[in-house]
Amino acid sequence: MLPNSNSSLSAEVSEFLLNCFVRSPRWQLWLPLPLSFLFLLAMGANATLLITIWLEVSLHEPMYYLLSLLSLLDMVLCLTVIPKVLAIFWFDLRSISFFACFLQMFIMNNFLPMESCTFLAMAYDRYVAICKPLHYPSIITDRFVAKAIAFILIRNTFLTAPIPILSARLHYCGKNIIENCICANLSVSKLSCDKVALNKIYQLIVAWTLLGSDLVLIMLSYTFILRAVLRLKAKGAAGKALSTCGSHFILILFFSTILLVFVFTHMAKKKVSPDIPILLNILHHVIPAALNPIVYGVRTQEIKQGIWKLLRRGG
After folding, report:
1. In three state form, how does the secondary structure of the chain look?
2. How high is the mean pLDDT in each 10-residue block of the chain (315 residues)?
3. Contact between residue 116 and residue 215 where contact means Cβ atoms under 8 Å apart
4. Which of 40, 113, 139, 147 could form a disulfide with 210 if both were Cys (CB 3.0 to 4.6 A apart)?
5. Is residue 130 within 8 Å of residue 241, measured between CB atoms?
6. Closest to 110 measured CA to CA, from 247, 203, 31, 13
């Protein structure tokens, strides 16, 4: 509901309205189709990967458990953001309840760093496999994966949970139109009647601490991997390792770069259309999700064989 001018100072907000690309009506015309395609691709590819790893006993290994976690995180992020955005485009369903808005905020702020941390665990897996192949079976075990998943869940939930909590505790006394397609922390908190400096500072510190530290450690892992690969003397071994790890690294770089671009465009919002950071934020929830299972899964020989086995079984 839109508050009127007489009640705007006293009415408590029970729902928000997402003002999604109202300044760019052309985007509302052409964006839904590619976004729908990417969403279906992401959900289909990740579901196929999860089912293949679950049903194929030969894939019940640490590396594929991490890959399953990545697919699961991608699917949750997609389902949290994209269906609501498409509902706005297709049916003009702009309203979102107070609870649903902050639940979406919690999942976005929690699961994106979880994905970054999963990339780090997978980079470490590749580092051990290439740099210390003889020790791989004793280091990368099911127990290692269980500890890595527990660390990913605890670290990110503990550090990111205060973001939506701080935002939800603010007093929303009238304005309820969010100038965004999603319930981003800063877009929502600026509607409150309270000071939001703490929200901004905390989110900035946590984002740079989690994502920044992950990216530095991933870069170090791939630096050691590259150095080890260049020393390989077996025919074709270096090329194969570079091909696999190179595609992984490009995908991780894309994941990190789009976040940096989003941050800088948001900081330079006076020089950039305010819709650009919104678009980048939406795409960041669907493009990596569509690419991850293709680069990490379909390009892996064992995954391809597993998919073919399932198709033959189904046929």
Report:
1. CCCCCCCCCCCCCCEEEECCCCCCHHHHHHCHHHHHHHHHHHHHHHHHHHHHHHHCHHHCCHHHHHHHHHHHHHHHHHHHHHHHHHHHHHHCCCEEEHHHHHHHHHHHHHHHHHHHHHHHHHHHHHHHHHHCHHHHHHHCCHHHHHHHHHHHHHHHHHHHCHHHHHHHCCCCCCCCEECCCCCCHHHHHCCCCCCCHHHHHHHHHHHHHHHHHHHHHHHHHHHHHHHHHCCCCCCCHHHHHHHHHHHHHHHHHHHHHHHHHHHHHHHCCCCCCCHHHHHHHHHHCCHHHHHHHHHHHHCCHHHHHHHHHHHHHHC
2. 41 83 77 94 94 90 92 95 94 93 95 93 90 92 96 95 93 88 91 88 88 89 84 64 68 71 61 78 89 78 82 71
3. yes
4. 113
5. yes
6. 203
**Cβ neighbour number for residue 240 with a 10 Å cutoff:** 12
Distance of alpha carbon 254 from alpha carbon 257, whole angstroms: 5
Q: What is residue 238's predicted lDDT score, i.e. its pLDDT?
A: 62
CATH topology of domain 15-314: Rhopdopsin 7-helix transmembrane proteins (1.20.1070)
Q: What is the pTM (predicted TM-score) of this model?
A: 0.88
Q: Pick from 179, 148, 159: which is nearest to 112 by CA?
A: 159
- Residue matched to tokens 């465009």: 265
Computed over its alpha carbons, how large is the radius of gyration of the chain?
22
